[in-house]
Amino acid sequence: MTLNPTHLPVPTELVTPRFALRRQQLTDNAVDYDAVMDSQGDLRIWSDSTWPEDTFTLKENAQDLAMHIGEHDRDEAYGFSIFSADQGQFLGSLYVNQVAPFIDNYRTDSQTAERLKQVDARVEYWLRRGVDRAFEMEFLRAVQAWMVEAWWFQRVAFGSRRGMHEQRGRYEAAGMTELAQLIAKEGERRFHFHT
Protein backbone atom coordinates (compact mmCIF):
# COMPACT_ATOMS: atom_id res chain seq x y z
CA MET A 1 0.00 0.00 0.00
CA THR A 2 1.05 3.59 -0.50
CA LEU A 3 0.42 6.94 1.14
CA ASN A 4 0.92 8.66 -2.20
CA PRO A 5 -1.14 6.94 -4.91
CA THR A 6 -0.97 9.90 -7.30
CA HIS A 7 2.79 10.44 -6.85
CA LEU A 8 2.61 13.98 -5.52
CA PRO A 9 5.83 15.72 -4.40
CA VAL A 10 6.60 14.70 -0.81
CA PRO A 11 7.53 17.55 1.55
CA THR A 12 11.14 17.20 2.64
CA GLU A 13 11.42 19.70 5.49
CA LEU A 14 9.75 22.06 7.91
CA VAL A 15 11.94 24.90 9.16
CA THR A 16 10.84 27.32 11.88
CA PRO A 17 12.73 29.74 14.14
CA ARG A 18 12.76 27.03 16.85
CA PHE A 19 13.44 23.77 15.00
CA ALA A 20 14.29 22.15 11.68
CA LEU A 21 12.57 18.96 10.63
CA ARG A 22 13.93 17.14 7.58
CA ARG A 23 13.85 13.74 5.93
CA GLN A 24 15.80 11.06 7.82
CA GLN A 25 19.28 10.22 6.52
CA LEU A 26 21.74 7.49 7.42
CA THR A 27 24.18 10.23 8.38
CA ASP A 28 21.83 10.98 11.31
CA ASN A 29 22.64 7.60 12.84
CA ALA A 30 25.08 8.65 15.57
CA VAL A 31 23.02 11.58 16.87
CA ASP A 32 19.78 9.62 16.51
CA TYR A 33 21.25 6.73 18.48
CA ASP A 34 22.51 9.06 21.20
CA ALA A 35 19.01 10.53 21.61
CA VAL A 36 17.39 7.08 21.56
CA MET A 37 19.63 5.73 24.31
CA ASP A 38 19.31 8.95 26.32
CA SER A 39 15.52 8.60 26.14
CA GLN A 40 15.12 4.84 26.65
CA GLY A 41 12.45 5.03 29.35
CA ASP A 42 10.33 7.52 27.41
CA LEU A 43 10.71 5.54 24.20
CA ARG A 44 9.57 2.31 25.84
CA ILE A 45 6.35 4.12 26.74
CA TRP A 46 6.20 5.66 23.23
CA SER A 47 6.61 2.26 21.56
CA ASP A 48 4.58 0.40 24.24
CA SER A 49 7.30 -2.25 24.14
CA THR A 50 10.76 -3.07 25.46
CA TRP A 51 12.37 -1.08 22.61
CA PRO A 52 15.01 0.21 22.83
CA GLU A 53 16.54 -2.62 24.83
CA ASP A 54 19.55 -1.99 27.05
CA THR A 55 21.64 -3.92 24.51
CA PHE A 56 20.41 -1.88 21.51
CA THR A 57 23.41 -1.01 19.34
CA LEU A 58 24.47 1.73 16.95
CA LYS A 59 24.38 -0.83 14.13
CA GLU A 60 20.80 -1.83 14.98
CA ASN A 61 19.82 1.83 15.02
CA ALA A 62 21.33 2.22 11.53
CA GLN A 63 19.27 -0.77 10.38
CA ASP A 64 16.11 0.86 11.77
CA LEU A 65 16.96 4.12 10.00
CA ALA A 66 17.58 2.25 6.74
CA MET A 67 14.19 0.55 7.09
CA HIS A 68 12.44 3.91 7.60
CA ILE A 69 14.32 5.46 4.67
CA GLY A 70 13.26 2.53 2.47
CA GLU A 71 9.62 3.02 3.50
CA HIS A 72 9.98 6.70 2.65
CA ASP A 73 11.42 5.86 -0.79
CA ARG A 74 8.48 3.51 -1.46
CA ASP A 75 5.86 6.03 -0.19
CA GLU A 76 4.76 3.53 2.47
CA ALA A 77 5.60 5.86 5.38
CA TYR A 78 7.63 9.02 5.86
CA GLY A 79 10.29 9.55 8.50
CA PHE A 80 11.80 12.85 9.59
CA SER A 81 14.60 13.85 11.95
CA ILE A 82 13.96 16.79 14.28
CA PHE A 83 16.82 19.18 15.06
CA SER A 84 17.23 22.45 16.91
CA ALA A 85 16.97 25.47 14.60
CA ASP A 86 20.76 25.65 14.21
CA GLN A 87 20.81 21.87 13.61
CA GLY A 88 23.27 21.54 16.48
CA GLN A 89 21.12 19.19 18.56
CA PHE A 90 19.08 16.16 17.51
CA LEU A 91 15.68 16.42 19.20
CA GLY A 92 13.72 13.38 18.01
CA SER A 93 11.83 11.83 15.12
CA LEU A 94 8.47 12.21 13.42
CA TYR A 95 6.67 9.60 11.32
CA VAL A 96 3.76 9.82 8.91
CA ASN A 97 2.25 6.35 8.59
CA GLN A 98 -0.63 4.49 7.04
CA VAL A 99 -3.67 3.69 9.16
CA ALA A 100 -5.22 0.57 7.60
CA PRO A 101 -2.41 -2.01 7.98
CA PHE A 102 -1.71 -0.79 11.50
CA ILE A 103 -5.22 -1.35 12.83
CA ASP A 104 -5.18 -4.98 11.68
CA ASN A 105 -3.37 -5.75 14.96
CA TYR A 106 -6.14 -4.21 17.09
CA ARG A 107 -9.72 -5.06 17.93
CA THR A 108 -12.16 -2.72 16.22
CA ASP A 109 -15.90 -2.57 16.04
CA SER A 110 -17.65 -1.52 12.84
CA GLN A 111 -18.26 2.07 13.97
CA THR A 112 -14.61 2.61 14.94
CA ALA A 113 -13.41 1.00 11.71
CA GLU A 114 -15.69 3.32 9.73
CA ARG A 115 -14.36 6.40 11.56
CA LEU A 116 -10.77 5.35 10.92
CA LYS A 117 -11.44 4.83 7.21
CA GLN A 118 -11.88 8.60 7.02
CA VAL A 119 -8.28 9.14 8.21
CA ASP A 120 -5.64 9.36 5.48
CA ALA A 121 -2.54 9.10 7.67
CA ARG A 122 -1.40 8.88 11.28
CA VAL A 123 1.36 11.06 12.70
CA GLU A 124 3.56 10.02 15.61
CA TYR A 125 6.62 11.68 17.04
CA TRP A 126 9.00 11.43 19.95
CA LEU A 127 11.17 14.12 21.49
CA ARG A 128 14.30 13.35 23.42
CA ARG A 129 14.29 13.37 27.22
CA GLY A 130 14.53 16.84 28.66
CA VAL A 131 12.97 18.73 25.75
CA ASP A 132 10.92 21.61 27.13
CA ARG A 133 7.18 20.92 27.02
CA ALA A 134 6.43 24.48 25.92
CA PHE A 135 8.67 23.73 22.93
CA GLU A 136 6.65 20.57 22.30
CA MET A 137 3.41 22.56 22.11
CA GLU A 138 5.00 24.94 19.61
CA PHE A 139 6.33 21.96 17.65
CA LEU A 140 2.95 20.22 17.67
CA ARG A 141 1.09 23.29 16.42
CA ALA A 142 3.66 23.84 13.65
CA VAL A 143 3.33 20.21 12.54
CA GLN A 144 -0.48 20.47 12.55
CA ALA A 145 -0.26 23.50 10.25
CA TRP A 146 2.36 21.79 8.04
CA MET A 147 0.14 18.75 7.54
CA VAL A 148 -2.65 21.04 6.30
CA GLU A 149 -0.54 23.42 4.21
CA ALA A 150 2.12 21.18 2.66
CA TRP A 151 0.59 17.70 2.41
CA TRP A 152 -2.23 16.27 0.32
CA PHE A 153 -4.04 14.43 3.12
CA GLN A 154 -7.62 15.45 3.84
CA ARG A 155 -7.60 14.14 7.39
CA VAL A 156 -4.66 13.28 9.61
CA ALA A 157 -4.77 11.70 13.08
CA PHE A 158 -2.07 12.08 15.71
CA GLY A 159 -1.36 8.87 17.59
CA SER A 160 -0.29 7.86 21.07
CA ARG A 161 0.04 4.63 23.01
CA ARG A 162 -1.42 3.71 26.38
CA GLY A 163 1.13 5.26 28.74
CA MET A 164 1.36 8.60 26.94
CA HIS A 165 -1.11 10.54 29.09
CA GLU A 166 0.83 13.80 28.96
CA GLN A 167 1.06 13.75 25.17
CA ARG A 168 -2.68 13.18 24.91
CA GLY A 169 -3.12 16.21 27.16
CA ARG A 170 -1.01 18.24 24.75
CA TYR A 171 -3.10 17.00 21.82
CA GLU A 172 -6.20 18.25 23.61
CA ALA A 173 -4.50 21.57 24.39
CA ALA A 174 -3.78 21.88 20.65
CA GLY A 175 -7.50 21.52 19.91
CA MET A 176 -7.69 17.82 19.08
CA THR A 177 -10.21 15.31 20.38
CA GLU A 178 -9.93 11.54 20.63
CA LEU A 179 -11.34 9.83 17.57
CA ALA A 180 -10.73 6.23 18.62
CA GLN A 181 -8.99 4.06 21.19
CA LEU A 182 -7.93 0.60 20.07
CA ILE A 183 -6.94 -2.41 22.17
CA ALA A 184 -4.51 -4.95 20.75
CA LYS A 185 -5.78 -8.37 19.73
CA GLU A 186 -2.96 -9.84 21.78
CA GLY A 187 -2.22 -8.33 25.18
CA GLU A 188 -3.14 -4.96 26.62
CA ARG A 189 -1.42 -2.61 24.17
CA ARG A 190 -3.54 0.40 23.31
CA PHE A 191 -3.44 3.04 20.62
CA HIS A 192 -5.27 6.37 20.62
CA PHE A 193 -6.11 8.45 17.52
CA HIS A 194 -6.66 12.21 17.90
CA THR A 195 -7.89 14.60 15.20
UniProtKB/TrEMBL annotation:
Domain of life: Bacteria
Protein name: Protein N-acetyltransferase, RimJ/RimL family
Organism ancestry: Bacteria, Thermotogati, Deinococcota, Deinococci, Deinococcales
